[in-house]
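Course assignment 3, question 2. Fill in each field.
Student: A.L.
Task: Predict the tertiary structure for the chain below.
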Amino acid sequence: MSKTKFGFIFIALLAMFLFTAENVMVPSFCAAQDEYDEEYSEEEDASGEEEDADARGADEADEDADAENEEGYSDEDEDFDPDAPLPEPKRVSGTKLETKDHILLSATYYPGNRGKKSVPVILLHDWAGNREDVEVLAQELQRMGCAVLIPDLRGHGRSNRMLVGPESTEKFEAGAKLKFNDLQEIVQYDLPCLKRFLMQQNNAGRLNIDKLCVGGVGYGGMAAAYFANQDWNPMVRRKKANPSAGDVKGFFIVSPPKNVKGIRFIDTLTYPNWRESASCIVIGNTKGKKLVKAMETQVKKACGKDAMERCWFRTYDVDGDGAEMIQDPDSDAVLDIAAFVELRCIKRDILWKSR
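Answer field:
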C-alpha cells in the first residue's frame, strides 16, 4: 500500500472516531450539567419555600389584598391593625444563612404583619454578645409593623459552625477582642447574606426591601453603618429602577464603640450619593457623649448642615451602656429608635417591586 493511500485511510478513520466521540461524550456531559442545574434550582427553590401554616395563611391574605396593585401602594395603610396578633418569630439557620465564606449563621426572624408594606430591619448585637441582647428592641419594632432579622454574628452564639464539606462542619469561634478584619468580614459576608434572606421575603410579597433599615449596638452598629455606605456603592449592579440608590434608607448605632485601628466612622460616608441621602440616629449615655459629638461633627463636615434634619444624635443621663440601654421598651433609646424608623422608613412613600 502506498504512503498516499495509507494517509487517506488514516484521516478517514480519525474523522469517524471524532464524529462518534462528539455524539457520545458531549450529550452525556450536557445531560449531567442540566441535571445538576435542575437539582440546584430545586434545592434553592425549596429553601425559600419552607414556612409554617400560619405564615402561609398570612401571606395569602397579603397577596389577595395587594393583587390589584402589585407594583406599589400609597402610604395609607388602612389594613394595618396594631392590636392584631403578631406573627410568631422563626429560627433561621443552616444553609439558608450560609455566607460566601461558608459560615453558617443562625438568626431569629420576626415577620412583619403589613405584607408588602412591612419595613425590613437587620439588628446586630455588639461584639462578644448575642442576639438575645437586642430581642426587646426587635419585638418593639415588630409591633410597629417591621420585619426584623436578628442574627448571632459569626463566631457568636449559634453562628459557630463553618461548612468544610458537603456534610461536614467545623467549629468556628470569634476572638475575644474585635479586629478590623473581623468587622470587614461581617460587612462583606454576614450582612449581604442576611440581606439576601430578606430579598427572598421581599419577592414573596412579605416586605419592601427598598425600605431597609440596619442598626446595632456598639461594633454591631458600626458594621451596620459601613454596610449602609457599601449598599450605596454606585458600582454595584442592581435590578431596580434607580441603580444609583441603595436599599438601605437609614441606620442606627447604640453606644458608639471606642476606636479600633482601621475603623473610623467617617469611612462610612464615602460615596457621594449616600452622603446626600444619609439618614441615621446615634445614641449614647453621658459617658459616651464625646464619641456621639465627634460623630455629629463628622457628619456635618461630610454631608453638610442640612444632613442634621436626617441625622439625629442623642445622649441620655443613664447608667447603663451598650445593650443595657435598650432592655426597657419604654426607655428613651428604644422610643427614639422607634420614632426614627417610623419617620425615615415606615412613612416614606416607596413603591414595592419584585427583585
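Instructor remarks: The longest helix spans residues 3-49. Helices lie at 3-49, 53-66, 135-143, 180-203, 219-231, 272-275, 289-303, 332-346.
Grade: pending
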